[in-house]
Specification:
Blueprint: H1 2-10, H2 85-90, E1 124-126, H3 129-139, H4 141-162, E2 167-176, H5 189-202, E3 205-206, E4 209-222, H6 224-292, H7 297-331, E5 338-340, H8 346-356, E6 357-359, H9 367-388, E7 393-406, E8 410-422, H10 430-497, H11 502-535, E9 538-540
Amino acid sequence: MNALVFAALLVPAGLPGAATAQPGSGQSLPVLAQYTAPPQRAPPAPPPPTPSVAPPAAPTQAPNAQAPGTPTPNAPPPDARQAPASRSARQPAAQNPDDVPEVPPPFQANVSDPLLTPAPPAPQQLQSWNEALTLLRQRSTDLQAALGQIEVAAGTWRIALANLLPSVGGELSAQYNILNPNIPAVGGGVGGGVGGGVSGAEGFTPTQLLGIGVLTANVPVVDLANLYALGSAKESRRTASLSLAETRRQLTRGLAQALVSVSSNERLAEVNRVNLRTALERLALAQRRYELGAGTRLDVVRVEQDAQSARRNVVTGDENLRQAREALGLALGTPSPVGIKPGLDLNTFLEGANAACRTLESLENRPDIAAARSRQVVAERAIGEVKRQYAPTLDITSTTTGLTVNPGFAQVPIWNVGASLVLPFWDGGAREGLLRQARGQLEQARADVTNRERNIAVEVTQAKRAVQVTQATRELADRERKLAEENDRLTRRSFEVGTGTSLELVQSAGALRQAELELVLRDFQFRQALVDAFLSEAACDW
């Protein structure tokens, strides 16, 4: 058989099963170690060397009896001892099971390649979820933008409140009458009243270089538009807070997915190197068979192509790992790659994410839905603000004026207190335009709420179903990998003993490599589905 032929190639001379010449035969059997033709069925092994003694005389048997082990039923003639002695030596005897050469052990090759070196570690490595969360708080630009939006909303509320509070202002000025310095000029009608009547009545004279101080105060009494705007600004602050909560949830989700991606790509890089080592061992086996004459150059070329494919997977897998580490660094707010400390289980990080977030009782409390509804409330209140601008406003005002006098320093000759009622009859249609804008924004807000509710309901359903689907596909991928591994082992063994072809060897190797990559991919999808399913119904309050 082909197995025996290849076994004979690996058995040193002198071991049991090697063909030797029979004493006195005059002709020796062909040596199996010199076999170079394609594998064929091997003849039975010859019996151990025995003295060349003629077999017992045939006439002692019955005329029609058949000699054991002879191919024809006719007995040899009585003078068979006159035949050459080498004929009896070449006759195959019954095969002894103990004389069959044993199948050699699996071929072991020492291979080396620069790509077998493990991927270098990241310059920065995470050791816990709390460390990652600390970096996220300090460096995340999305988080800083959300916090800035809260400040903007707080400023808007403070402006709305200021419109309802009293306001006090002052003004200081100096004037000099160049044409007639003896006549003080306060400006317009105020100059006449101050310079004439006040000077004579009070007995003081304003200075030539006149200093004037004016103090004004205004107290809103009735201002329905600004009062309603204060409530809208308060709701805007709530919207900003809910947006911050949604940003935290999204950042937690992105961080967890980045950690899963790094872990999966690190595993994929290890699998690629294992596959490369296995491909190099197959290449060494094919070259050995070719050197012994049991293989062809085509076998070596086929296995070499498979090894090159394994090298390509190592290169692309390392680049994917570098990109995953860079993505994790960007998620943490640093431009340098970030990895996971070797030996740490990914489940430790995921448990930390679960502890940082809480499961919601209802999807109505999810931050993005609550923020969308809050924006709808703000849009509704904007319509009320515009309508209240048609109402009049009532303010109480007060003005106090002080002058520099001679003799003395200053006098306060004027203190006015009054009230102003503003009646907005016509503004050219500006309020009508504002009202239409507010109504359009309200329709947009309502559509956004409806759209989010629909999408999130489907998202949660798909996230829960994805856990079951990815778990099932991962189990199937694990079974496929085990079958591919067994198939590759048997195919490789068949190729070692000479019963398999190089094409079968390459095909089984490719199937195993694809099964390994598929298992890593399915495991990555399963872990990612777990993260999405949890955070789709959670809120993060870190």
